[in-house]
């Protein structure tokens, strides 16, 4: 055993943990997607070069702001940037040179090593919805609670096609703002054994996240391995606020991964044109990623792009639009040219309900993410109402459809069995294939099968209550929660995590703003 191995292997957890493991419900979790299909390369070489040149002009001539962060300004000055108040102008080529020290891919370790994920390359790792203050279930829309959050973590743990537990799956408004991150992290660590995300709402909360991981994995392991991936949004246009940058500084210093993600509503926070928006996305991503490398060269980082358009009549964001698909594809090309992992996509929609609008818009974005070379998909399931709502029903509907992406990503088999010449010879003209040997050998695995949707004849469907997709999803939610069993954990580690949370909570007064 090496010093770098996580403590869970050095301390087996005793008889209680072993008994729990033997009696746990067995269910399948799919490995992260390894694409065997080509990416859609939408933009020409000439267009990409123009965007890259224009992004360098933005950084050198317009610059980016780092407000209320003298340490960041000092780092940039030492690196050779021009500082004018809070404005940082980055000489041509400097940001790209700094970004080159970031790894092209990295492993995020889970407490269950079988669920580690590799982010980058041809891989696609999918995480659930992130950030909504409201939830929706069969009883309607309401503010989220910690009990809701815990249910979502359980659903994510039980979902076959979901590789990652995520972060703020919903915002539990019944817990003080300055303490809820502790409960959320504890839920991810104890109710699931998939990888998870850390807190970014304050640098001190990022530090708490690191320290809780040191309890879970062991300090030596965290020092040498990436165990968290966290979302750092750029305050578009061209502004890097001190709270997000403070969290990035903590994570980068501890070799934990950050998604540097421009947060753009086209027409409001970026130009209305695809190329203009991509220019801004590239400039912002390069500046943020470069800054992570100033904090610690080699820190793992993901090139992020969350871009949607705006309805010019209502001012509301729109999702699943052709422009969003074009921007996603172009951003993926730009990220790959920088040899960096790419984050975008998800089950995005503007609908208020898990209805046809939600399905159309979600399908458009999920397929764009698969074809656009996304490596880390946030909001993979559960997103509703432009990200204001985390829906239990949509969570399981989306999670089911993620299986389609797994199936498409495999590509088309061409081996002897796939050619099926024996079946064609056996059946011949005018026959059918239902009973032939090839069908009998392959029918169990030949086709992807839904766990939620209904394919029964009309008469059967009608007799069972003519249930729509939302009703079927409600049933699926309850089935998953009814069969959930908590993954085993070393009792000593669990006690240490609970003590850490209790001590941190007791040290400060409640704050709800």
SSE layout and pairing:
Layout: H1 7-10, H2 14-23, E1 33-34, H3 45-62, E2 64-65, H4 70-79, E3 82-84, E4 87-89, H5 94-99, E5 105-108, E6 117-120, E7 123-126, E8 134-137, E9 140-143, H6 146-158, H7 180-191, H8 203-217, H9 219-224, E10 229-234, H10 242-253, E11 257-265, H11 274-295, E12 301-304, E13 306-310, E14 317-318, H12 322-337, E15 342-343, H13 356-371, E16 376-377, E17 383-384, E18 389-391, H14 392-409, H15 416-419, H16 421-427, H17 437-446, H18 458-463, H19 469-483, H20 491-506
Helix pairs in contact: 3-11, 6-7, 7-8, 7-20, 8-10, 11-12, 12-13, 13-14, 14-19
Q: What would you note in describing this structure?
A:
The chain is α/β, with parallel strands linked by helices and 513 residues long. It has helices at residues 7-10, 14-23, 45-62, 70-79, 94-99, 146-158, 180-191, 203-217, 219-224, 242-253, 274-295, 322-337, 356-371, 392-409, 416-419, 421-427, 437-446, 458-463, 469-483, 491-506, and strands at residues 33-34, 64-65, 82-84, 87-89, 105-108, 117-120, 123-126, 134-137, 140-143, 229-234, 257-265, 301-304, 306-310, 317-318, 342-343, 376-377, 383-384, 389-391. The strands form five sheets. Strands 10, 11, 12, 13, 14 and 15 form a six-stranded mixed sheet that branches. Strands 9-8-18-17 form a four-stranded mixed sheet. Helix 11 (274-295) links the parallel strand 11 (257-265) and strand 12. Helix 6 (146-158) runs parallel beside helix 7 (180-191) and helix 8 (203-217) packs parallel to helix 10 (242-253). The radius of gyration is 24 Å and the shape is globular.
